[in-house]
Each structure stands twice: as C-alpha cells, then as structure tokens.
C-alpha cells in the first residue's frame, strides 16, 4: 500500500503553543506533497542517478509555492514569519513524509546555503539570495572532502584559495555534495593562508568540473557528486564575513541544517509508521489481524512514543533558535541524532511487519509498491550527513564533561 494512508500523527502528537502561521504552512505543504510529490515518488526513485533524473519540476514548484522564502525575514525577501526555523523544519517534515530526496534538496537550497549568506556583506547576499529564494539558481554547500568529513580542521581541509589580483584562485576537491550536478553556486569551506574560510563560488565557469553523480543506497532523486576546483575564480567580494571564520559559519549553517534533518527523520518515521499501522489492520493470519498481536502492538506503541519525543525535540531546538540562540545545544544535537535514529528504527520494523511485501521494491505480479523499503534505505543517509550521529553524541557529551 502506498501513501497516502490515514495519518496517525493527530492522535499521537499535540503540539502546544505552535503558532497559527506554522500550522497553516504545514497544511499548505501537506496539500502539495500529497497531490504532487507523493504520486511521483516511486517512479522518481527508480530513475538512474544522472542529470535527467533530477526532479526539476518539483524543485521549481516549491519555488512557485514560495517554500524557499520560509526561513527568511521580510528584509531579506523572505516570509518574515515569527518562527522561521520551526516553519522550515515543519516543511522538511512534510516533504520527507513522502520523499527525503526532495526534503534534502530543500535543505541545501535554502536552509543551509541561505544561512551561510546571512553572514555575507549586503552586496554578496543580494547577488545570490534573491536568486536562491526565487529558485532561479540552485545552491549547494561544499564542506566534505575525500579525506575530511567529520574532521574539518584546517590541517585536514585541502581545498585552498590562493591570492590573485582582485580575489583568489581555488584548488581542491569536495565530495558527496548534494545538488552539485545541477547547482549554479556553492558555498565552499577552504583555507586562505592556512585559516578556514568560507567563499561563494560560481560553478558555471572554467576551472570547475563536476564528475558524474554518485550512485547511492537511497535518495536517488537527489544527486550528489564531487566538485573539482582547478584554479576557479573567486572575486574578493565573495568571501563570506572574513578570513578565518569558515568553521564558525559552517557550524552556524549546520545548526539549522541539523534541526531540519531532525524534522526530516520525524517525517520518514511517521510515514513508515502510518504505512505499518494500515498494513497491520488489514493483514490477517491465524484468524486475526496482525494488529491484534501484542508483539507488534508493543513495538508500535514504543515507536509512537519515540516519534512524539523526536518531534518535541526538534520543535524545542527550533523555538530556542527562533528566540535568538545561535547554537541551541544540546537540543540541536539530540534532535538530529534521535530523529534520524528513530527513522531508521521505525523503517526497519516497518519492513519486517510487511513481511515479504516489505522487501519488495515493486511487485512483478501487479506493479504494486509498498514504500517501506524505500524509507528504510533513505533513512540511513541522515544518520551520516550534516554531522554523523556519533559526532552529535560527542557534542552532547561535551555538555557533561567539557571539551
Ligand atoms: C547522502 C549524503 C549527502 C551528503 N551531502 C553533503 C553535502 O551536501 N555537503 C557536504 O559538505 N557533505 C555532504 N555529505 C558528507 C557528510 O557530511 C559526511 O559523510 C559526514 O560528515 C561523515 O564524514 P565521512 O563520510 O568522511 O566519514 P568519517 O569522518 O570518515 O567517519 C567515519 C565514521 O567514523 C565515525 N566517527 C568520526 N569521529 C568519531 C568519534 N570521535 N568517535 C566515534 N566515531 C567517530 C563517524 O561517525 C562515521 O561513522 C553527504 C553525505 C551523504 C552520505
């Protein structure tokens, strides 16, 4: 059975003090996701991972619906909501309920890259932010390298900006970068004179090569690839904030990204949960429904509790951020590790409770799609990206034991 099925979230989660504007946004995004995203997902995820499979129409539709405006203030051309982080996280949850590929494209386009640009001069911000918000340009954030993932210290990062007349020439290689094959610009972590710095790079120029997209376990509709810089031009105005602030900017962007990814975990978990509840009610064996078996009742009672806890955590992290805390810890780390772990846990049981159907991508006999194996595969990525869950537990432990 494919989504949409009956959504159980209303019976299990009662968000208190959630602003009306966020509730309305949730319903608006849900309508789009149900009508336009849901029906496209199964086919979209079966495409080969190349340029032709990028879901350009859906990405453009999100722009038309104004979804990239959500995280921004009105002075920046955004919606000017009172709780923009919570609102963006709710968008992520609703998109990930149907497709984590689309959710993470949204995340890189406006949650992460836009946050980097908020540290830029007005001139640099105005060169790129309106084009990102309107969907005219696709953005990506390039931090990871072949030999620098969890550890992005200045000695690990090999991408280097070398001073040249009026700016820098950039050399190095980034890895696993979401949107890279289709992106117009990248926010790139590099070193300048040995200090970690953040620059905005136009990707449509000589000196930039994007090899073919990676082939991943899941999330096939979002493309990742390396970006190779070989003397790419970075004008001096494209330095964000100042030299030596690169890690600080990256961590600020990742803080928002982690709250957003936590919400995407909740969305995936909720989808796997709802599909399972539907299946358990209808599937009969030994003269009773699967739902009558106490083993599964207990398992899914636990999952319902964990999903509600994960949603509470990301709401709390987001609301603290919206109240002005740049790094709302430990809730940011807790919400990201817990939300994505819950997604994996619920998806694993969802596959199991569907029996053989759970393992099927598409049934040969009648073309039916059950959806839970896709969620199981999609849920693995977020446990790794935007700070692996081990790194986040380390951040939580720092609150107990110090650095
Ligand atoms: C689908 C996908 C999309 C991505 N998109 C982007 C993107 O758009 N932009 C970008 O810059 N990067 C992106 N990444 C990269 C991602 O952020 C890195 O993969 C991640 O930071 C981990 O780095 P690594 O892969 O080099 O693993 P490593 O750093 O080599 O880590 C390997 C393992 O060691 C564990 N580990 C590390 N330190 C510790 C410790 N102190 N204690 C215990 N265990 C530890 C890690 O948790 C991990 O399990 C993406 C990755 C994936 C999978």
Give a brief rundown of this model.
This protein has 403 residues and is α+β, with helices and mostly antiparallel strands. The chain contains 13 helices and 9 strands. It has a 4-stranded antiparallel sheet, covered by helices on one side.
Structural class: alpha+beta
Euclidean distance between termini CA atoms: 48 Å
The proportion of strand residues reads 5-15%
CA radius of gyration is 21 Å
Output the CATH homologous superfamily of the largest domain.
Butyryl-CoA Dehydrogenase, subunit A, domain 3
Number of strands: 9
Number of domains: 3
**Helicity range:** 40-55%
Order of helices and strands: HHHHHHEEEEEEEHEEHHHHHH
Largest sheet: 4 strands, antiparallel
Shape: globular
CATH topology of the largest domain: Butyryl-CoA Dehydrogenase, subunit A, domain 3
Q: Class of the largest domain, according to the CATH hierarchy? A: Mainly Alpha
Tell me which ligands are bound: flavin-adenine dinucleotide
Tell me the CATH architecture of the largest domain: Up-down Bundle
What integer is the average pLDDT? 96
Attribute tags:
Butyryl-CoA Dehydrogenase, subunit A, domain 3; binds flavin-adenine dinucleotide; Butyryl-Coa Dehydrogenase, subunit A, domain 1; 9 strands; 3 domains; Butyryl-CoA Dehydrogenase, subunit A, domain 2; alpha+beta; 3-stranded mixed sheet; single chain
């Amino acid at each position: 059975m494919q989504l949409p099925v009956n959504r159980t979230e209303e019976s299990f989660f009662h968000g208190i003090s959630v602003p009306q504007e966020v509730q309305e946004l949730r319903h608006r995004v849900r309508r789009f996701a149900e009508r336009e995203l849901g029906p496209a997902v199964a086919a979209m995820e079966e495409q080969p991972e190349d340029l032709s499979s990028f879901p350009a129409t859906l990405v453009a539709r999100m722009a038309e619906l104004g979804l990239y405006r959500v995280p921004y203030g009105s002075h920046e051309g955004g919606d000017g909501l009172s709780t923009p982080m919570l609102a963006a996280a709710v968008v992520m949850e609703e998109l990930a309920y149907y497709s984590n590929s689309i959710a993470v494209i949204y995340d890189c386009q406006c949650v992460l890259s836009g946050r980097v640009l908020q540290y830029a001069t007005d001139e640099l911000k105005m060169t790129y932010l309106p084009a990102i918000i309107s969907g005219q340009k696709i953005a990506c954030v390039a931090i990871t390298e072949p030999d620098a993932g969890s550890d992005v210290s200045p000695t690990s990062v090999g991408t280097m900006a070398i001073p040249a007349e009026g700016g820098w020439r950039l050399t190095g290689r980034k890895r696993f970068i979401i949107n890279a094959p289709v992106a117009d610009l990248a926010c790139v972590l590099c070193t300048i004179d040995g200090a970690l710095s953040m620059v905005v790079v136009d990707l449509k120029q000589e000196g930039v090569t994007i090899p073919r997209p990676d082939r991943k376990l899941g999330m096939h509709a979002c493309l990742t690839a390396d970006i190779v810089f070989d003397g790419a031009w970075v004008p001096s105005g494209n330095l964000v904030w100042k030299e030596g602030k690169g890690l600080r900017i990256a961590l600020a962007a990742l803080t928002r990204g982690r709250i957003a990814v936590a919400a995407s975990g909740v969305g995936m978990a909720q989808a796997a949960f709802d599909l399972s509840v539907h299946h358990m009610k209808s599937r009969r064996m030994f003269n009773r429904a699967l739902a009558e078996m106490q083993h599964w009742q207990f398992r899914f009672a636990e999952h319902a509790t964990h999903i509600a806890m994960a949603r509470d955590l990301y709401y709390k992290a987001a609301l603290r951020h919206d109240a002005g805390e740049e790094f709302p810890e430990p809730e940011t780390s807790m919400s990201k590790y817990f939300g994505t772990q819950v997604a994996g846990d619920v998806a694993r049981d969802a596959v199991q409770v569907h029996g053989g159907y759970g393992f099927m991508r598409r049934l040969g006999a009648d073309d039916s799609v059950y959806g839970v194996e896709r969620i199981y595969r999609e849920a693995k990525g977020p446990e790794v990206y935007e700070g692996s869950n081990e790194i986040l537990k380390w951040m939580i432990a720092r609150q107990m034991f110090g650095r």
